[in-house]
Amino acid sequence: MKCPVCGASTRRHFTHGSYWIRACDDCSHKVAEFAAAADHVATTYDDDYFEGGAAGYQDYLSEAEILIEHGRRYGQLMTNYSKAGKVFDVGAAAGFLLKGYMQAGWYGEGIEPNARMAEYARTRLGVPVATGNLESFHADTVFDLVSMIQILAHFVDPRAALKVAASITRPGGFWLVETWNRESLTARLFGKRWHEYSPPSVLHWFSPKGVSKLASEFGFRELGRGRPNKWISGRHAKSLIRYRLENSHLNWPITSLIRLLPDRVNLPYPPKAGPPSPPLPSSPGCPAKVIICPLGVTHRRIWLKLSEMKTLPFGSAATPRG
Ligand SMILES: [Zn+2]
């Protein structure tokens, strides 16, 4: 199996459940050894993913308020680089992030493989989310921003997905990518016990460099990076912790403790840190499209989120505003 980032050979590194996690001999990218069935997306992101706890959510729809707020922040973040315009949200689920983008002045649409979530977005939120996969998406228009929040690591073939994303991004447009950072301190401390190793939902574990390399293949340049400040509900936090500790000897003591946590409290995810690092200055002659990459850094409260994410708005060579 070749590395999906650099093409070098990979070797079996360790197992997670019934899956081998392979490591690239050259760039150290981690990838699940996985033969995707034709119904992989349909079965992995079925209703149970959004409601059954497990790898996904205990009750995704109850996260509405927090997720809309996150979307609003993404929208505001991106207006540092571009006038609010037309956004395309990949893996839009019930449309909450997109709704938040809209509250920040953006307009646009999204795509989501789970039919019920997409329908919820359309009928309950009035947000245009189509049912489908990015890889088979065709648009007769281009977007100012393609938003890929915690999506890239789920693709069987990230390069194929990014190819479509690039095709629907206008020249000078942006990508915002957020994904788990294999090089975060938490990931390194926990090694193979890092809780983001969760195939077959998550299939790739990137470094910031790996994501930048993939993006550069499509003419994007990194513009900035930082770590997202987020909140999740107590209910979601408990669900995540229970799932992630399923096979751990820490399961009993920790899950006993977290029962004390109320469902309706909002918790930092990961804990709040300082502002993202300022974007890199643009250079003359750079490609039309640029990537911003807020880099995951460490956090101290590992019981909540045993990974960090990095956020990568990719965008134009325009000098960031404000
Ligand atoms: Zn590699």
Structure report:
With 322 residues, the chain is α/β, with parallel strands linked by helices. It has one domain: Rossmann fold (3-Layer(aba) Sandwich). Helix content is 27%, strand content 21%. It contains ten helices and 13 strands. Helix 3 packs across helix 4. The radius of gyration is 19 Å and the shape is globular. The N and C termini lie far apart (45 Å). It binds zinc ion. Zinc ion binds next to loops.
Considering the chains and any ligands shown, give keywords for the structure.
globular; binds zinc ion; 7-stranded mixed beta sheet; 27% helix; Rossmann fold; disordered C terminus; alpha/beta; 4-stranded antiparallel beta sheet
How is the topology of this model organized?
Blueprint lengths: L9 E7 L2 E6 L5 E3 L7 H5 L2 H5 L12 H15 L7 E5 L5 H8 L3 E6 L2 H10 L4 E3 L11 E7 L8 H10 L1 E12 L4 H6 L13 E2 L2 H10 L13 E3 H11 L6 H8 L7 E3 L20 E3 L17 E8 L6
Parallel strand pairs: 4-5, 4-7, 5-6, 7-8
Antiparallel strand pairs: 1-2, 2-3, 3-9, 8-13, 10-11, 12-13
Helix pairs in contact: 3-4
